[in-house]
Amino acid sequence: MTYIGTILNLHQLWLADDRTGCRAALAGVVLTGANLVDADLEEANLTGAALDGADLSGANLYKGDLTGANLEGVNLTWADLERANLTGANLVDANLEGVNLTGADLVGADLSGADLSWARLSWANLSWANLYGADLSGANLEGANLEGVDLTGATMPEGWEQ
User: How far apart are CA 59 and CA 39, in angstroms?
Assistant: First the structure.
């Protein structure tokens, strides 16, 4: 079994409240281009991780800590990042179609060029985020904090009024 596979298995035991497991501690880890489709990383610590170009489609990152992570060009389609911390994360050109970012913290995140079509961003904190050229068509922005957000060139949901 690979190193990451072992960590994921121990994390599953921790989530099940098994004393033999432990929370995934992947802070600063380099997983560039990794295949983590449908991975269960609920509440995992991925602070400062390099996940650029990785495939995390369908992954569970509920309440995960991705503060300052490099997620440039990552595939997070239909992933669950509800209540995740993405403060200062690099999500340039990321595919976030249909992603659940309800209540997520994206303060100062760079989402320029990202595909956020049909994303759930309700009650997310996007203050001072960069959404330059992002696609937000069909996205749910109910209650989202958009203070200081750069929406230059962004495609907004139909009927959008700021």
Answer: 5
Residue 1's pLDDT band (boundaries 50, 70, 90)? very low
Q: Is residue 71 part of a domain?
A: yes
Distance from the Cα of residue 98 to its chain's centroid: 11
The answer to whether position 63 is within a domain reads yes
Are 57 and 76 in contact, with CB atoms under 8 Å apart? yes
Q: What pLDDT is stored for residue 162 in this prediction?
A: 64
How high is the mean pLDDT of the chain? 94
Q: Is 59 left (phi over 0), alpha (psi -120 to 50) or beta?
A: beta
pTM over 0.90: yes
Q: Which two tokens stand for residue 26?
A: 């992947």
Chain-centroid distance of CA 28 in Å reads 16
Question: Is residue 144 a part of any domain in this protein?
Answer: yes
